[in-house]
Design goal:
Layout (H helix, E strand, L loop, with lengths): L2 H30 L11 E3 L2 E8 L7 E9 L10 E5 L7 E2 L1 E2 L5 E7 L5 E10 L2 E10 L4
Length: 142
């Protein structure tokens, strides 16, 4: 067998091995996807501000979940002059969210209840003016 023949065989086997390895990696990455899609929660508008929330985990589980409230004013500038409080339903007490710097982000772990769905109540206070926004959530099974 010549060196050229041996090189062709080795190169061919290397290509096949590389293709198989890439296929296994792609399959493994697809299997790592938990199968649950993250929840997209539409933003709401109040007093020239856009208010959106994120949940951790996403989608949220029944019980305690971290709620992150992101408030931006005109031109996307952060709104940092608010007091933000949260609760999972009307029977629960309001809990004040912690302001994360002066970047318009407020966060707090809140008991959002159980079942298949929940409504997170977000109370925004700016001076003497306040507004409660309702954010319906579909809870993850499990």
């Amino acid at each position: 067998m010549s060196i050229t023949s041996a090189t062709k065989i080795f190169t061919g086997n290397l290509k096949k091995s590389l293709i198989i390895l890439l296929g296994l990696i792609a399959t493994g990455l697809a299997a790592c996807n938990g199968g649950s899609e993250s929840l997209s929660i539409p933003a709401q508008h109040w007093n020239e501000m856009d208010v959106r929330i994120e949940t951790h985990p996403n989608p949220p589980l029944a019980g305690m979940s971290e709620i992150v409230v992101i408030v931006t004013g005109p031109h996307g500038k952060p709104a940092g002059d608010l007091t933000v409080s949260l609760r999972g339903n009307d029977s629960m007490p309001w809990v004040q969210a912690i302001q994360d710097g002066f970047i318009g982000v407020y966060r707090r772990a809140v008991d959002i209840g159980g079942g298949e769905a929940a409504v997170v109540q977000v109370r925004l206070q700016q001076g003497a003016v306040q507004k409660v926004l309702l954010f319906p959530l579909k809870l993850a099974a499990g």
